[in-house]
Amino acid sequence: TKYVYRFGGGANDGGAGDKFLLGGKGANLDGMASIGLPVPPGFTISTEMCTRYYQDGEVFPDSLKAEVAEGLRHIEAITGKNFGDAADPLLVSVRSGARVSMPGMMDTVLNLGLNDATVEGLAQVSGDERFAWDSYRRFVQMYSDVVLGLDHDAFEEALEIMKEDNGFFSDTEMEAKHWKALVAEYMALVQDQWGKPFPQDVHDQLWGAVAAVFGSWQSERAKVYRRLNDIPAEWGTAVNVQAMVFGNMGDTSATGVAFTRNPSTGENLYYGEFLINAQGEDVVAGIRTPQYLTRQAREEANAKPQSMEEAMSETYAELARVFDILEKHYRDMQDIEFTVERGKLWMLQTRSGKRTAKAALRIAVDMANEGLITEEEAIARVDPMALDQLLHPSLDPAAVRDVLTKGLPASPGAASGLIVFDADTAERRNEMGDSVILVRIETSPEDIHGMHAARGILTARGGMTSHAAVVARGMGRPCVSGAGSLSIDNKERVLRIGKRELREGDTITIDGTTGEVMMGSVPTVQPELVGDFGVLMGWADKVRRLKVRTNAETPEDCRVARDFGAEGIGLCRTEHMFFEASRITNVRQMILAEDEAGRRAALEKLLPEQRADFHSIFEVMAGLPVTIRLLDPPLHEFLPHSESEFAEVAQAAGVGVEVLKRRANELHEFNPMLGHRGCRLGVTYPEIYEMQARAIFEAACDVAAESGAAPIPEVMIPLVATRRELELMKKVVDVAAEMVFAEKGRRIEYLVGTMIELPRAALMADEIAEVGEFFSFGTNDLTQTTLGVSRDDAGRFLTQYVDKGIFARDPFVSLDIEGVGQLIEIAVQKGRKTRPDIKLGICGEHGGDPASIAFCETTGLDYVSASPYRVPIARLAAAQAAL
Ligand code: PEP
Ligand code: MG
Fold first, then answer.
1. How many CB atoms lie within 10 A of CB 594?
2. Which domain holds residue 329?
3. d(C-alpha 704, C-alpha 741), whole Å
4. Which of 10, 268, 766, 873 is most deeply packed, by most CB within 10 A?
5. Is 780 in the pocket of ligand 1 (CB under 6 A)?
6. Does residue 98 contact residue 235 with C-beta atoms inside 8 Å?
7. Is the pTM of this model over 0.90?
8. Beta-sheet pairing, 569-573 with 403-406
């Protein structure tokens, strides 16, 4: 097998653009080189090598040596420099590159090829001794950190002391002799910490770096990231070895990162940051505050230092030309790294840029309108789950704010939470149910789990392209970065902002849209979904076949869902109405009744309340189908559990504590999920379902009389396992309907159907469909009963099940298609055989999960039903499934 692929200088080794083989970075370097853009020559060791490396027990095959040697000769031939040549050395960068960009892996080693001899040669040919020694110290520091795994802080500290001893404030004051002295200190640190001298052989250096890249694929950080992002471990990473170009060769040199459109807002404007006389890591690490790329951006930010457009107008014009070529070529917004070496532009990387949901929408819609992509492609470009970001609240403009400081608006959205200073605490407090804001000087890949656990992220250092900003945008977490006035004392666990002092556990609010940091918890408002959102949703609605309904039981939720485009209610859980504080007393009276007469008396009082509930829902959902599920949970859920509650409840219900306790005891169940619940309640106490049915039809008739728009009630019976259960319950509902219609002097169209949430119901769907007029798959219970995994207890072990690959994803979040999905397929097929026009939907949590929605599309369901905030996600996912 061939493992090394060269790029640059007109060489093309095949595999061009193949991300699977070359990784994302390698494929795009090859791609840029092949369309004639200025790319320093190099070669890529393919992802196949990574896989083999692990298969073979972390050793390289002999054949790789020769291939790498040939790769080096390719670079040498084009640059005219030789690797390890003491007179005029070739230096290379070594970078990882998985198929998708993946924080948590070894990222980059720059200036590789420097040693005690070649540094002198570099000083000679560049005519810049300071530059040569600065490059050497950077290399030793980076290599020691990422390849040798030595303590990074010790190196930073040595640099700080060196500066202090010389009375310097910034790195730029360091001269050649200082860098040289620092290198000597670094060498001693390496010897001390590593027990061996720093590798002087440039080939040892190279192989060390290559092995470190492959080794980092199995680092804990990388594994966490893969788990959070569903990236398979088999993919592996590639390694890119490329000739160095230098952005730190004086004031005509620079380095920068840029986006071809604004990744935060999606505006079609170049966007980026650059630093004069610097190397790439200086921008990303946020050590110096970068300058703006365009004049417009600089002026808008009221910043002083010249933009690249002003400071290097010719190179900037060339860069702008490259941006346009890249966007046309890749037909997407690009995220670019570049270096200017003595006025000459070099492209180091391009990839599809990460963006906020807002930007994703705008870019997709704009590009379709520009004719760069089709409407279908625009639909496919937006991750449905990313819409979540847009659907969440922003700060109430009318709210009083106590603004502590302002940083960069790095990732939009507002969040409040308790201050925590490290990722582990963030994770722990989150598990305890607290909302937290992770506050760090700057973040690094070690913080990923904490960033995930936090509601928002606040950093003191770093720009819009810092680690914190990029990762937060990708995760959809609000982030304020580079809030320079923060002073964080990790030891004392305090945060100082000016004269104010905040402690860990104090509440703050951050607004990632404006960059503001506020004291306390600031109220928020719902987003308005217009503009690009509306346009894309309109396109999605044109192509989707599945209808989208919502799970809701309050008029407010119904209204939100309708605004989000819900086309009906797929699940109204009536027990939520029973739990309402104002009526729980009547519910308890019903439960405590000793006989049917007593129950009926209590139900009599509940009837007008239920009727009013349905009345207001029918008003909001006028003309749309509304699926109402009759009472489902076991009755003891409505009774108190603690001693203190018993007395209170007994008094309110007008019974003795002893009576209440006896009844609670009678109702106690060892396995309530499989106990006296669902239609079993209706079978034993038909008067409950009778009252609910009556409330539904009375409300429906009233709304029809008042508004002329009759709702279409679909009465749904839960937890049915047999045809006979459904038959009995349908009878109760039909009798109630006829009585109400006779009393009201009008008829309403309605259906009676069932949930399919037990395996037996799925298997016997042909029989059940003889009675049931619709099926709604209750995949929460169906997953629980098919897997024999309790939905309430699964949390304790499911993470491990996912980690160990037993389940690809949590089956309560994303449908187990092979198992539970098979039961759904059987039920669909059998149900249709009996009743060809049977209405089929899904109302478990999976109705809002894109992968499960794709399954519902192929299975031919009529609709999915999701919680209100998931309705837009479901609309887009349904459209993508139909493409
Ligand atoms: C289900 O079981 O999937 C369902 C929607 O019902 P619930 O979650 O109320 O049990
Ligand atoms: Mg259920």
1. 9
2. 254-355
3. 12
4. 873
5. yes
6. yes
7. no
8. unpaired
